[in-house]
Amino acid sequence: MRRSMVRIAVGLLVAGVLWTEPAAWSWGNTGHEAVACAAWKLLDQATKDKIWALLQRVPTRQNAAKTKSIAGFPEWTANLPAGLSDDEQHMWVFMRAATYPDSLKHTFLHDSDVVPSNMAEATANLGFTDPDSHGYWHFVDEAFGTAATANSKPPSFPTACLKKNAAGNLEPPPTPVSTLPPTPAVNAESEIELLSQKMAGGEDPDLMAYDLMWLEHLVGDIHQPLHAAVRYVNGVGDTGGNCVEIKIPSTVTTNFKDASGKSKKPTELHAFWDDLPGAGEQMDTQMALDYAATLPAADADLAKVTDPKTWLSESFALAQSDAYASPIGKALGSPTAYVITQAYYDAAAGDAQKRIALAGARLAGLLTGVMNSGQ
User: Fold this and answer.
1) Cβ 85 vs Cβ 246: under 8 Å
2) d(CA 181, CA 232)
3) Which residues contact 133 (CB under 8 A, 6 or more apart)?
4) Which pLDDT score is estimated for 375?
5) Number of domains the chain is built from
6) Residue 4: inside a domain, yes or no?
7) Cβ-proximal residues to 211 (8 Å cutoff; 6+ apart), any chain
8) What is the distance between the alpha carbons of residues 76 and 98, in angstroms, rounded to a whole number?
9) pLDDT digits over 331-365, tens only?
10) 339: CATH
11) Where would you tag: which of 9, 204, 233, 313 has the fewest CB atoms within 10 A of its CB?
12) Predicted pLDDT at 3
């Protein structure tokens, strides 16, 4: 799911190139790397070797002017800690690769969270030459809630969630709809199925490397509850919780910190769920390892479930039962933000651990299948 407010990009001049830290989506870097860590530990050596060969093919991508770049294998291996075994080095790179689809956004590619009308474009499998970042691949906007009626009033819409027009002026709130919209046909679940089929059928190695990273990422995405749902309040959608304002009081103990320990408390519901594992950046891999070490073992029976539609249904149900539970009310937290309680945070943090552990186990099973389908 897209973040409604993009984090402020931090420019870092490295070797003459302006590196831009992109906004985080879905679980955030820490969560996605933890999913990959859990998966790596369940893979057999033959599958790991095939994955490692593909990861070495991931290039550094640059715009024509060479002023913006998207990190690849050279950057992921440049600052690995000393003393890592070969397997640990490979795992660190695999973990960083899980964040690759998010790193495509807000760089020099075409960004859109809306599925194009041209289905060939929407499902294009172009690899490292793809000019689009495919934001709409990251989530499934399955609608629930209330539509607008003749007598209903639209909810107060958060100013921070308003879009800007080409002139930079805020646009009016969205028009309430009288019928909840259908789920877009191209989404995280459909792409997991498509890319799995492509990889299992045999692809060019470069394309397979690209699809591998998308599968890593999307399996994590689809296990985040607010990547599976959009709640409507009198006909106005909340974009997966992005437009639900929250406040976390100082009395609530949380894990919303970056690698330096600095507090990074979110102010909207989707970001709250994204950053439950922590708010690290792509290269803060040790932070993800520390979080992954706290994960419970995935439920053995659930780990055997291979249908992404079922994974989606689980997340959709969890969004309704837990993500929108009290103190989250029936509106958008505007003008008075919903105040997060310790009980809500603790329950959400427990959900995140279970979903990330399960995503890791299912990712391991999926990759074992697609990487060895030709045998």
Assistant:
1) no
2) 10
3) 101, 104, 105, 107, 109, 110, 111, 112
4) 59
5) 1
6) no
7) 125, 127, 195, 198, 199, 203
8) 11
9) 999 999 999 999 999 999 999 999 999 999 999 99
10) 1.10.575.10
11) 204
12) 52
- Stretches where the chain sits below pLDDT 70 are 1-25, 374-375
d(CA 294, CA 365): 21
Is the separation of the CB atoms in 239 and 270 below 8 Å? yes
DSSP conformation class of 137? G
56: containing domain? 11-371
Residue 1 located in a structural domain: no
The pLDDT value given to residue 4 = 44
In a domain, 5, yes or no: no
DSSP assignment string, 317-341: HHIIIIIT-TTS-SS---SSPEEPP
The CA distance from 371 to 367, in Å, is: 6
Residue 2 maps to a domain: no
3-class DSSP assignment, residue 263: strand
Beta strands in the chain (DSSP E): 11-14, 17-20, 61-62, 69-70, 143-145, 230-233, 236-237, 246-247, 338-339
- Residue 239, beta-bridge partner list: none
Q: State the pTM of this model.
A: 0.92
